[in-house]
Amino acid sequence: MFLSYEAFRAAADAISKAIVEACIEAGRRPGEVQLLPVTKTQPAAAADYVARYGLPAVGENRVQEAIEKRAQTQASVRWELIGHLQSNKARIAAQQFDRIQSVDRAKLLDPLDRAAAELGKTLPVLLQVNAGRDPAKFGAELEDAPQLLEQALGRPHLRVEGLMTIAPLSSDPEVARRTFAALRTLRDELAARFGVPLSELSMGMTSDFRVAIAEGSTTVRVGTALFGARAALGQ
Ligand SMILES: *Cc1c(COP(=O)(O)O)cnc(C)c1O
């Protein structure tokens, strides 16, 4: 059975508090870090909970799953894609999502830009970078990020708001820390070189959001700590 709203609220309160504490510890203003609840594999009611709690957006990692859920809820939240996007789904993703965090290769740029143009919108995107050099993760290689950014900046209907990464799975918190520090350093270099703010750093999940905040995260994507464990399929 899906958790009750009260259970969700208690979890969201706890995570919100932990985010504030991590900000203070890092000498940052708590308002600088957004909590993005990750609703993948959860029922559409998860989006209702998020809206009722007053958070502005949810993260989903599959296009089709998000479409099905959006059809089942009136929740006034923004929907963000945080999972790998196949090129043949770029068009529908541009239509269905309010932001795409997982733009990881140049091949996606044209279909996304074209779809956004046809929809008469500017699509906010983040570039996903494999900052931890994890063979099991998607994301542009660190070396390829400048070219990907340059190409993305040339697409008039895409707005590059920043970078996203997923740290390698590891029991050593230093692995995540190094990954997040690498993404922030890359962001600083790219922002200076291309003269764009790239103010969003989407990094940190249930197991590593505190470290991510210490390293400059502006959006933490949290699923398990809010909704409980997922069935293996959705991991
Ligand atoms: C599932 C997922 C999350 C949330 O992970 P938790 O460990 O459940 O907090 C965050 N980011 C991405 C890209 C995900 O796929």
UniProtKB/TrEMBL annotation:
Q: Which Pfam families match?
A: Ala_racemase_N
- Asked if the record carries the keyword Cell division, the reply is no
> Which cofactors must be present for this protein to function?
pyridoxal 5'-phosphate
Alphabetically sorted, this entry's keywords are: Pyridoxal phosphate
N6-(pyridoxal phosphate)lysine found at = K40
- Coiled-coil parts of chain: none
Q: Does the keyword Cell membrane apply?
A: no
Molecular-function GO terms, alphabetical:
pyridoxal phosphate binding
Q: Which domain of life is it from?
A: Bacteria
Q: Which residues cross the membrane?
A: none
Q: InterPro entries of this UniProt entry?
A: Ala_racemase_N (IPR001608), PLP-binding_barrel (IPR029066), PyrdxlP_homeostasis (IPR011078)
Specify the Alanine racemase N-terminal domain's residue ranges: 32-230
Family assignment? Answer: Belongs to the pyridoxal phosphate-binding protein YggS/PROSC family.
Annotated function: Pyridoxal 5'-phosphate (PLP)-binding protein, which is involved in PLP homeostasis.
Name of the protein in its database record: Pyridoxal phosphate homeostasis protein
